[in-house]
Amino acid sequence: MDIEMKHYDILIIGGGMVGATLARALRGQGLSIAMVEAVRFDARAEPGYDDRAIAVAQGTRRIFDGLQLWDRLVDDATPIHQIHVSDRGHFGFTRMTREEEGLPALGYVVPARAIGQVLGEAIAQDGSIDMYCPAVMRSISSDDDGASVEIEQDGVMTTLAAKLVVAADGADSPVREQFGIDAATADYHQTAIITNITPQLPHNNIAYERFTDTGPLALLPMSAQRCAVVWTVTTEQADRVMALPDGEFLARLQERFGFRLGRLQRVGRRQAWPLRLVKARASTGRRLALVGNAVHTLHPIAGQGFNLGARDVAVLAEIVVDAVRSGQDPGNAAVTDCYASWREADHRRVTAFTDGLARLFTLPLPALGPVRGAGMLALDLLPPAKRLLTRMTMGRGGRVPRLARGLPL
After folding, report:
1. How far is the C-alpha of 7 from the C-alpha of 32, rounded, in Å?
2. Where does 68-163 have alpha helices with state H?
């Protein structure tokens, strides 16, 4: 095979939303950047009823502001004005509102298609980022001087040298594995059924999170009065629920959710995603930083996954850019150590929050129902406690990087 060598400052393995956001954040900073992605990018997708939705927290919206991309997304974004949390079959609920936070929205629901297109177009128009797609990583190694990654693209082997490798290659990260970084995993024995529905009544920009005995059920407001559905069922139930005719599926969903939105009238294509928790034992290695699902794969409860990854990007980009401006090597131990230290508390806090909720509300103990209900009611009546929770879910807790304040790097 033909072999060639290319040199970069930053090499991003994984061209999904988190990897592409990092590439956009680092452009124009005097860095040579490359991105490797195994799956060929689709041709521009047209909007459709089955658009998969991403919950974008207020802090993530500000990151897109700092990247000068939010103006390109806003037409596709449905704002969340209120979040309504309840426990099926028990009293008590909690409401969080934009008025309580003094914000135009608590967050937004944006089609993944729109985010992908905006990021892809921004990177292509910039022209300063080398894309290797589709390409497969074959091996990776690092030493004190740099990292070396061998990729295969169209039968051609290429060695890419980099000062810093960023793993944005998902929950089963090959980069993490080749660096010997273990990950703790826990199977929730649940599956998320993801689809879109149209209810009889307008959603009024309210996001619903309803806890049930099989897991949480979320309905998120979308454009054209659709709602994105994330319905958690047990693994044993998943195949049966997926096989239901549309009418029976809607009836089962109606029984779990209730009639706050009237009758559920239409359902789109369904997808099933087995749920597990993945926590990398470390977020860095020699000449390596892990971001997004490569370092933390969460239960979808409260919609924290992409937002936590976006904060990884904002922090790493700030540290790398500050290092370069001060004449440092962007991949040295001081940079990766700073990234690991800064992100540790946020990773720990959000992982504990989502994992704890997922487990608490599915414990088969009848006596816990009234306790959970009382807890939610108390939270609704204690504004300071509720505000702490709201700020965490919006990504506004702890030390906030520049991009998450809507500022440029």
Report:
1. 8
2. 70-73, 98-101, 112-126
Q: Which has the closest alpha carbon to 235: 291, 192, 202?
A: 192
Name residue 10's amino acid: I
Rounded CA-CA distance 76/47 in Å is: 10
Q: What is the CATH number of the domain that holds 35?
A: 3.50.50.60
Residues 6+ apart with CB under 8 A from 372: 87, 90, 92, 211, 360, 361
* 206 Cβ contact list (under 8 Å, min separation 6): 80, 81, 82, 83, 84, 221
**382 vs 252, more confident:** 252
Closest CA to 300 of 409, 196, 201, 188: 188
Number of domains in the chain: 1
Measured CA to CA, the distance from residue 87 to residue 82 in angstroms comes to 17
Is 190 a member of any domain? no
- The first and second tokens of residue 365, run together, are 């103990």
> What 8-state DSSP symbol labels residue 223?
G
Q: Is residue 227 part of a domain?
A: no
Is the confidence at residue 371, as pLDDT, over 70? no
For residue 237, name the pLDDT band (cuts at 50, 70, 90): very high
The answer to the question of residue 179 being in a domain is yes
**Residue 187 and residue 72: Cα distance in Å, rounded?**
37
Q: Which residue type sits at 139?
A: S
DSSP for 23-73? HHHHTTSS--EEEE-SSPPPPPPPP-TTPPEEEEEHHHHHHHHHTT-HHHH
Domain that holds residue 70: 3-77+109-185+276-364+399-405
CA-closest candidate to residue 139, choices 159, 167, 111? 159
305-325 and 333-360 helices, crossing angle to 10°? 170
